[in-house]
């Protein structure tokens, strides 16, 4: 017994030493990681509800109006009126309650990560959710990913404030985790959500072991919740394509270079339209709301007979992959969607640009595939492989995030065998856009937001 006492005493000291060190250690990293998991799950729930609600409103509008209006000549005016009302409600909420909820919201989050923009979650969360329902439900050419990313980051700020965490570095970490969770939920793509933070938000994201772990955990828990509700299937069920033959890889490089030019044109035209819209609005609520009603109404009316031209774009991607369109139709749809997407987004609507970019990239990739098939009939070419490569390439050229675009499309389509041609296309698009001195879209939008904010402060100071 006397021999066991020293051993038992030393064991007790050892265990007490562990407990004492655990008590005295900094619990902040553990708390942040647990919060990241909770935030990710909450964002997954809200993001999934947002997707279900926007889909229901859009489907209800497009099916109920034709059922209620028996006269075929009145269907278009009726659809215009219903879509206009939905859009005007959205624009009014944005202008009167939460101006920072306009647009995709991603530049706002990038500004918040630099402590340049406030995060007013108590007004952004309800306005972005309801405003997004109105703008996306009206049939405007917008995506739900931008709103979901902004919702995710604002939910993070809400938890940060509720738990009264005072560390600013922890705030940045949670904001990034919430944004990653938002993108993961919008596309059922956790890897793309993680990469988006690391690649697109690299100037603002404060790298550390804890912050990267938090982003990964947030993306994982958000995706789990999404799949528990919506299922595990890929967002775009377009079938499997064979890998691209080695002798055709140079064709993907040319496609990427073309997308680099298209991306520059897209950004330039979008920013030009935004300048014109702001000059027209002159800060007046009535002009902003009426313009929203006009754009939303037109999109709803167009969708009665040509739904391929409006909406987020997933339906037109499915039809393109099914071979429903000839090259002439693809050219027309590409030109019209280029116009409708830039108008919808630049007007200040509460909606994102990711989905419209993916649809545009798919359409042009299909056009390119038809041309290549005509020029090189001996090549073993599948038009769908160029369409899939084009999906991520236009995103890479405009946002300047090639790896995010690549992984996003791979996760959405499950065509992992096309990773090499897609990588070539995305990098080609990015390099050409860089050589032409094109700038990332969200960086320019953030600069404009900060400039307008500075001008508004100066005007108030003069008064």
From TrEMBL:
<keyword id="KW-0472">Membrane</keyword>
<keyword id="KW-1133">Transmembrane helix</keyword>
<feature type="transmembrane region" description="Helical">
    <location>
        <begin position="317"/>
        <end position="336"/>
    </location>
</feature>
<feature type="transmembrane region" description="Helical">
    <location>
        <begin position="348"/>
        <end position="371"/>
    </location>
</feature>
<dbReference type="GO" id="GO:0005247">
    <property type="term" value="F:voltage-gated chloride channel activity"/>
</dbReference>
<dbReference type="GO" id="GO:0005886">
    <property type="term" value="C:plasma membrane"/>
</dbReference>
<feature type="transmembrane region" description="Helical">
    <location>
        <begin position="121"/>
        <end position="142"/>
    </location>
</feature>
<keyword id="KW-0406">Ion transport</keyword>
<dbReference type="InterPro" id="IPR001807">
    <property type="entry name" value="ClC"/>
</dbReference>
<feature type="transmembrane region" description="Helical">
    <location>
        <begin position="249"/>
        <end position="273"/>
    </location>
</feature>
<dbReference type="InterPro" id="IPR014743">
    <property type="entry name" value="Cl-channel_core"/>
</dbReference>
<feature type="transmembrane region" description="Helical">
    <location>
        <begin position="174"/>
        <end position="198"/>
    </location>
</feature>
<feature type="transmembrane region" description="Helical">
    <location>
        <begin position="210"/>
        <end position="229"/>
    </location>
</feature>
<feature type="transmembrane region" description="Helical">
    <location>
        <begin position="416"/>
        <end position="436"/>
    </location>
</feature>
<feature type="transmembrane region" description="Helical">
    <location>
        <begin position="73"/>
        <end position="94"/>
    </location>
</feature>
<feature type="transmembrane region" description="Helical">
    <location>
        <begin position="383"/>
        <end position="409"/>
    </location>
</feature>
<protein>
    <submittedName>
        <fullName>Chloride channel protein</fullName>
    </submittedName>
</protein>
<keyword id="KW-0813">Transport</keyword>
<feature type="transmembrane region" description="Helical">
    <location>
        <begin position="30"/>
        <end position="53"/>
    </location>
</feature>
<dbReference type="Pfam" id="PF00654">
    <property type="entry name" value="Voltage_CLC"/>
</dbReference>
<keyword id="KW-0868">Chloride</keyword>
<keyword id="KW-0812">Transmembrane</keyword>
<feature type="transmembrane region" description="Helical">
    <location>
        <begin position="285"/>
        <end position="305"/>
    </location>
</feature>
